[in-house]
Amino acid sequence: MILPAREEELDLTKAHDISMNGHGCDQFDDAYAYDGDDLGAVYTEEKTGFKVWAPAASEVSLNLYEQGDGDDLIETIPMKMGDKGVWSCEKQGDLNGVYYTYSVKNGDRTNETVDLYARATGVNGNRGMIVDLRATDPEGFENDTRPAFVNPTDAVIYELHIRDLSADPSSGIRSTGKFLGLTETGTTNADGLATGIDHIRDLGVTHVQILPCFDYATVDETRPGTPQYNWGYDPKNYNVPEGSYSTDPYHGEVRINEMKRMVQALHRNGIRVNMDVVYNHTYNIQDSYFQKTVPDYYYRKVGGSYSNASACGNETASDHAMMRKYIVDSVVYWATEYHIDGFRFDLMAVHDIGTMNAVRAALDRIDPSIMVYGEGWTGGDCAIPSSQQALKANMAQIDRVGAFSDDIRDAVKGSVFEAQDKGFISGKDGMEERIRFGIVAATPHPQVPTGDGVRSWAAQPGQSINYVSCHDNLTFWDKLAISNADDSEETRIRMNRLGSAIILTSQGVPFLQAGEEMLRSKPSAAAEGGFDENSYISPDSTNSIKWSEKAKVMDTYEYYRGLIAFRRAHGALRMAETADIQRNLTFMSGLDANVVGYTIANSANGGTAEKITVIFNGNADVVDVPLPAGTWEICVNDRTAGTVSVGTAETTVSVAGISAMVLVQGDDTI
Description:
Elements: H1 24-32, E1 40-43, E2 47-53, E3 59-65, E4 73-78, E5 80-81, E6 86-92, E7 99-106, E8 109-113, E9 128-129, E10 157-160, H2 162-166, H3 196-203, E11 207-210, E12 214-216, E13 235-241, H4 252-268, E14 272-277, H5 289-293, E15 301-302, E16 305-306, H6 321-337, E17 342-345, H7 353-364, E18 371-374, E19 402-405, H8 406-413, H9 432-439, E20 464-466, H10 476-483, H11 489-505, E21 509-513, H12 540-543, H13 554-569, H14 578-584, E22 585-587, E23 595-600, E24 611-617, E25 623-636, E26 648-655, E27 659-665
């Protein structure tokens, strides 16, 4: 997603002759790691204190500017080095709204750089800004509270790009491509159907996961009228909101206020907010503020070359004390200052296990319900051993941190790397064991034997993030259009509904790509009739949610909505402990090929139903499935889903081709 960096060797001034490369970094950390909480610009009305960690530097000075760009230097103030290589100075007076940079001399090179701990910046993030954060709070923000939430398995996550929500004219949203687009209620398409935040609230999800909304490098904020698009996986300033999502990128306080208003609006609508964070790499090396401040410390190297587990030209060194501290400090800042409710770590396995455990521990001190999860893989070879990486396979060593289950993703619809490959829902035989593995959230279960690509990796169900599509690769609907091109649209809709039913009734944490509930497609801008599987810089015509299509797919939308309502109404689908799944969930035996069924008994997890039976039929034809004794209420079939019974069954039930059926027994709410 990111242009590769120039792999040039950058000189490193050695502090006290201790190398920051290889094993020498341990010595460097022992000598210079700083544990204070006062790095950056600490503002009061009377004065502002500045501190920057730069132990390899021979000189550091503070530059104050009137604006975030232009030739308007106010003054330059020399800084003094103190303990642990921290340089500091103070400036008297009220500096709110003044911009600043540091000039850092390492060896014979002096670089002007933005403060790594900057909380605000000017346009394009090229200068930090001193900010009175309390003045950026929207009215009532001090009383903003996180919507009630306890266990990760109670979540239904909805992944959304800020611009995608409102970029299509049919959205009815005035604040196109902005944070404020998620604050507008009452918006509709031409058919009078809800769009934007009202649509999301009505769908019933618990968390919106925002694609990167920190300050990233590849959208020029000075050209708001020029079509520009990027997913945002090209970090520039980690602790600053992206300026192109604000109404005024030139004044740093505006983007802060407007992002807070977005969080506040979602909270008022009962929706928590997760951030997609990208600490595993920077946009490049040579322009990175990390590199300009302490050359080569923040990046991993193998010999004389930069390691590239991100596949973006570099990988950050989370195993170095001050990079780990930076990541922890950053998520704590977002969680406290912006009331962010969770963090999705891009390429999480580039980070080490110790860092992810430190993140979890720090957030627990704020609120244990804050979610932490990520991609349990890398984009290439990593410079640290696999035993130290936050890989999916190592989740048992990482407390209450989740990973995306590519297992259930590919079992349901086929490999994301082979467009023609099919899965359980689309006609591939022999996928039953893999579907069962996904149903138990990748945890050990006596009826799910390991082998043939099945190996439990989650210690608890809350560690398995279950999905069929996200921003990467083809959308769910486009995947089916390619893998099942010879099938009718009606058949592919049945496949879509069956896939959504598997995700939303399995144990673990369900995750949806925004628009999946409306059969979202990403048409290629380059090839007529084609689809875009890597739309990170594609235009709005590809990426935007087409709200004008909603009326045509209301049956599917209502099906998703009903599945979510059913899941949220039945605790048995949201068990938080592996032992509870092993005790209460029993797979049916003797079923036809390409059919998976199971029963959850004992009013598990405080559920209102004494028993729930779930059946998935991947065959094109109807199958008859024997039921446990008693009368069963049908809440989900091939046409409808919800919390209300649409019929009853006893002894045997007929399950339509390519469909799910969910039945309950002993539920006094029906």
